[in-house]
Amino acid sequence: MMLYTSRKASVLRHVEHPRNIREYKTLKMKAVGIVGYKKSGKTSLLAKLARELTARDLIISSVKHSSCALDLPETDTAIHRQFTHQTAAITTKESAIFFQESMKLEDMLNYLKADLILIEGFKKEKTYPKIVCLRPGDDPETLMDGLEICVVGASSDLQIDGKVPVLDSENDIARIADLVQEKAFKLPSMDCEACGYETCYEMAVQIVKGNKTIGDCRSLNADVQIKINDQVMPTKPFISDIVRKTITGMLSSLKGYRDGKIEIKIE
């Protein structure tokens, strides 16, 4: 599944995968970003990673920030989009939905179902680990924000924090994929402060450093868990508290009620 977003529109595209998309293995979103300047090899690296991770029997989705139009002019879908708010296209092998607005990354990610999401671009997003792609002469400090798990495309003699490996997209793709599988996570960008940090960014940096884990995110690990289409929805602690008290208050009046784990399923 691929997702593109630009300043004026967004499109969600689904393509066939050998394993049913409904069989993705994780309920908590996992993501890794790929950032760099133009022509730094981001798309090429994403394609290689997706191929490697798919070969490991993972469902992979991708998101790309685009600076150009998401559809070709004069196509049938382009004509549809001139007169509609949303347009869907279906073929025998793939499907796509066009939104006539640029949506936030957080909103678009909710449409994706995958074991792991690869996010190209979005340098300013800071709730998941990143791979930094460098061109010759690029200053790594302009792209590194404490969330990097490796650097790709730089010369091997580049001086970078010793804890951040410098790898090659041609010869080290298996190792890069290992890092992605090991390090991938996605915080909810809620800045609820329940973890003790003021922002999700601060928490994300600590997770990348190994000082914290995704299990320390209170919003993703609340005692009240809400799932929509099998995807865990992050909730702020005070919202979880309201839901818990409301549900238990209503159910406690029912005959046969007793304290314990409560499951409610709505189809």
Overview of this structure, please?
The chain has 267 residues and is of the alpha/beta class. The protein has a domain at 2-186: Rossmann fold. It contains six helices and twelve strands. The chain has helices at 42-55, 76-83, 105-109, 173-183, 200-209, 237-251; strands at 2-5, 10-15, 31-36, 60-65, 86-90, 94-99, 116-120, 130-133, 148-152, 166-167, 226-228, 231-233. The chain is globular and about 70 Å long. The relative contact order is 0.16.
Summarize the structure.
The chain is α/β, with parallel strands linked by helices and 267 residues long.
Record keyword descriptors for this entry.
21% strand, 24% helix, two-stranded antiparallel ribbon, 267 residues, 10-stranded mixed sheet
Name the CATH architecture of the domain at 2-186: 3-Layer(aba) Sandwich
Helix content bin: 10-25%
- Class by helix and strand content? alpha/beta
CATH topology of the domain at 2-186: Rossmann fold
**Number of separate strands:** 12
**Which CATH class of the domain at 2-186?**
Alpha Beta
| Pattern of helices and strands | EEEHEHEEHEEEEHHEEH
Sheet bearing the most strands, described? 10 strands, mixed
Strand order of the largest sheet: 5-6-2-1-4-7-3-8-9-10
| Total count of helical runs of at least 4 residues | 6
Topology, please?
Layout lengths: L1 E4 L4 E6 L15 E6 L5 H14 L4 E6 L10 H8 L2 E5 L3 E6 L5 H5 L6 E5 L9 E4 L14 E5 L13 E2 L5 H11 L16 H10 L16 E3 L2 E3 L3 H15 L16
Parallel strand pairs: 1-4, 3-7, 3-8, 4-7, 8-9, 9-10
Antiparallel strand pairs: 1-2, 2-6, 5-6, 11-12
Helix pairs in contact: 1-4
